[in-house]
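Appendix C: a fully annotated inverse folding record. The material below is reproduced so that readers can follow the format used throughout the book. The structure is listed first as tokens, followed by the designed sequence.
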């Protein structure tokens, strides 16, 4: 799916991140997921909403290691590990969780 197939998506960067994170809502997240060939499940939403809350609380994004530890602290070791997070977001858990959550690209992501 390309951007022309997605209805009324807010402005995006060249890498597909929202330019204005305040433009985010669940419909936008669903459209971004479709654009990135991700079928959202309750497990995805749990991580997406978690990273949004983290960003709103701390005003910055964690690196991948801190992200995994924070997920573990919040949801337990079964979900707070790289294998679980990579099953949800195979091309990069932190990068794609942030992208679908309408957040900026993490500075540690390529």
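Designed amino acids, in order:
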């Amino acid at each position: 799916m390309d951007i022309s197939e997605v209805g009324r998506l807010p402005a995006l960067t060249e890498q597909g991140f929202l330019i204005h994170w305040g433009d985010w809502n669940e419909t936008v997240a669903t459209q971004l997921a479709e654009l990135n060939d991700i079928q959202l499940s309750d497990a995805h939403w749990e991580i997406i909403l978690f990273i949004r809350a983290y960003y709103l609380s701390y005003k910055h994004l964690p690196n991948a290691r801190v992200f995994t530890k924070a997920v573990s602290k919040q949801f337990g070791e079964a979900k707070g590990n790289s294998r679980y997070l990579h099953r949800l977001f195979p091309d990069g858990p932190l990068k794609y969780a942030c992208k679908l959550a309408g957040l900026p690209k993490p500075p540690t992501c390529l």
